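[Q] Does anyone have a clean structure-token version of this?
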Amino acid sequence: MKQNTTKFNVQDNVKDNVQDTVKNTAQSISALILAGGQSQRFNYSDKGLIPFLQKPMIEHVLERIAPQVTYVSISCNRHTEQYRSIIQNYYQVSHQFNQKEPVQASAAPPICISDKSNDPLQGPLAGVSAYLEHCQSDTMFICSTDMPLIDRNIVQQLSNAMHQFSADACYPVDENGHHYLAVLIKRSAAINALQQLLASSATTSMKTTKKTKVYAIKNWLNQINSHQILIDSHAIGFADINNAADMTLIEDKVEQKINAKADL
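[A] Here you go.
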């Protein structure tokens, strides 16, 4: 399916729209942070729990995404209790400072969701598939745990574009490429796209390695009307950390920005 691109400048809107983000989007959008990968390039360490700037990587993502949505769940296949504790502590502290009202347990999906053992899907889509069985919101934001500097206003920007262009899903692109794992998508469209992807793969016989490529986020989004927004963001806003060298490089860039008193 054809994907359209709109140019959008995040930095022009971040400062003025942070409060509007919470007000306009948090009432109807849930979020899923994907932390269920094997992290082979990190020697199979649990990437979300690896320290980045002196605290677990997922805490950075949580602190940036949670104020923009109703509630957050984590897709994880190990260290479930640690992830659950991180989210519970975040909401406890933020509620004490009147930053975020706690969500009623009956209205929220589980904090931690593991992949289904019998799911034919692989990789990130296995986590998405498991989450869809619990998600009650009409729209959901999905991002990876290795984006600790993701924009604090990204959900609102994607929501604006999705409504403006009547899209089923929306994700950012910048000078570094397509950021499929920072996507806002309608729940109904997410389900339909998964069904189409499974149906198309079921008609052909293929090896496991090839199925891994078929079950990619990119192919999932290609099943529906998805829209791209071209973001003039700073170079590390959507930087994903795949190995120790990436982490060192990005931490150095952050230190430089802090010293220059630049926005992060």
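[Q] Thanks! Anything notable?
[A] Residues 4-259 form a domain with the Spore Coat Polysaccharide Biosynthesis Protein SpsA; Chain A fold (CATH 3.90.550.10).
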